[in-house]
Amino acid sequence: MQPVSVRHYTAVCAAGVGREALWDAVVAGRSGLAPNDLPGVTLNTHIGRVADLEDTPLPADFAEWDCRNNRLALLALQQDGFEEAVVAARERFGPRRIAVVLGTSTGSIGSTEDAYRARVDDIELPAAFRRPIVHSPYSLVDFVRRYLRLEGPAFGVSTACSSSARVFGSAERLLRLGLADAVLVGGTDSLCQSVLFGFNSLELMSPDACRPFDVARQGLSLGEGSGYALLERGPGDGIVLRGYGETSDAHHMSSPHPEGLGARRAMEQALASAGLEPEAIDYVNLHGTATRLNDQVEGEAMRTLFPEPVACSSVKGWTGHTLGAAGIVEAVYSLLSLEHGLVPQTLNCTEVEARFRDYVRTAPSREALHTVMSNSFGFGGNNCSLVFGTTP
Amino acid sequence: MRTTCLSVHVEGIGIWSPGLDGWDRTRAVLRGDAPFAPQATPLPSPAVLPAAERRRSPTTARVAIQVAAEACSHSGIDPAQLPCVFASSHGDTEISDYLCRELAANAPLSPTKFHNSVHNAASGYWTIAVGCMQSATALSGGDETFAYGMLEAGLQAAGSHRPVLLVVYDHAAPAPLSSVCPISRTLGVALVLSPVATPRSLAVVDFREGDTACTPIALAPGLQALLAGNPAARALPLLSCLASEKAATLSAGSFCLEIAPCR
Q1: Is the ipTM of this complex over 0.90?
Q2: Is B21 among the domain residues?
Q3: Is residue B114 part of a domain?
Q4: pTM > 0.90: yes or no
Q5: Is any Cβ of chain A less than 8 angstroms from the Cβ of B121?
Q6: Which of A323, A370, B61, B122 is the most exposed place for a label (fewest CB within 10 A)?
Q7: Distance between CA A183 and CA B151 in Å, rounded?
Q8: CB-CB: which of A116, A119, A153 is closest to B254?
């Protein structure tokens, strides 16, 4: 495919608000995970919670859209001059020529949870909670497109933990086939009771901070996050999306394909669309959730596709698993790695599982990076792999 | 009006809703050859889903899979080879209701119902049922979910030069969610879309940008109520054109769809 220009990007998660803070935490090896303190959730686990969202409602004009997820989405828009970059693009191309494609999995379900808990008669939702838009999966996209006054195609992608990686594929097609001149991609997911108790019911959560690929890993830590990229046609003069792959496992709703076949095919497709051989990849930002099975399967897929070991790491020890936001948050970490020429370590991983020792990095290393891959896999056997690079 | 930027051919159709169980009956209803009689109907139980998955899967997945299987069969294309785009305005509100009730009561969650709560549950069960390892996505687009489903499926078909399955569905919301989720009817619609004409093509659909004069499509009063009670029913004007083999220009979100029959 023709490379797509990544004009601007930013992200927010527990490890930092904006690019500089995220990168400072990488360099300092400082995790955003902390013992769970989410109100009403007594589970013994660690979470990656973004501070102060409780005290920062949306501006009055957007009171109807106010919820934790959209507050987090706004916080990310306000970082690194991103909002200004979108406004400049809107002035340049016109509001109808800018599409909005955002991923989310939780959406604003936390608001629906609150509404049910606030019922007094056990029958109706209290009047104060009857704001239809926050009970819709479209809440995030609807808020962002209205806030930024964009009028092009605007839809949400919700494929669980690959949601905000898949938005890059939709954007590339919108640009290539001429339906838009710029696409705002990204995604937001926020902590809520259903995901904490849900992953707990699946027995996939770690009591301590998650340790991706460690021999003693005990499961994932949940987090929240939000991020964006502004994409345009043409190679530009900076960082580009070079390829992407999208596949299904066709195996199980919540367990990966035992041989990682869907994951491997997504990576193969991403390489093929970029016109690259595996040797061209300098660094792979793994999905690396730190569950026993997920890391095992992803590691085996890496060994098969990259018989010559490639530098790999998972950043979930910093961020926690940000679910529907993981795709964009980790795409941003991948882009930061490219810009800074540094492979981050796999934070909290002290002893890598033996079979993956030549792949998974436990110490940061300065390297000239030209091409990086970012993996995202989700429930329903939904796989997405992205390839980013610097313009040659 | 802007020039055509994207076009696809309709190769197969599937539909399910009370009174519209299958394309044959629906075509007759839309042509005015049969009455629209939406009685209480048992929800579909698609044969393509293995018994265990049928038991575990949420209602929306069964509706979506029923129509997906019909459209694939109609098109003659092996579903394992079709990338798919699933789109739903609200996903499975029965599952959302279950999760929120249990959490409010401090009761434990069922792990199966939790993994069924993802918006891509229907596409997940479908890919498992038919052994499809192709791309499967799940979208939401509010009231314009059908339009954006068409757009993504059209872009995938034209962008990858291969047919794509589109499945759009929404399910009547249970109380108390019904007070904030205006979906009172259950409906699923599926289309197989091809980037090129084939001997089976029923119609060609051109996507056009900008405002243009749209063709008024007269739907029977009962169908108007369905249109108001389910965002997926915004597919009905398009299906009406396919049923009557008439050309029309329809509004769809931020663009228009120009439909011309192939035979």
Answers
A1: yes
A2: yes
A3: yes
A4: yes
A5: yes
A6: A370
A7: 15
A8: A153
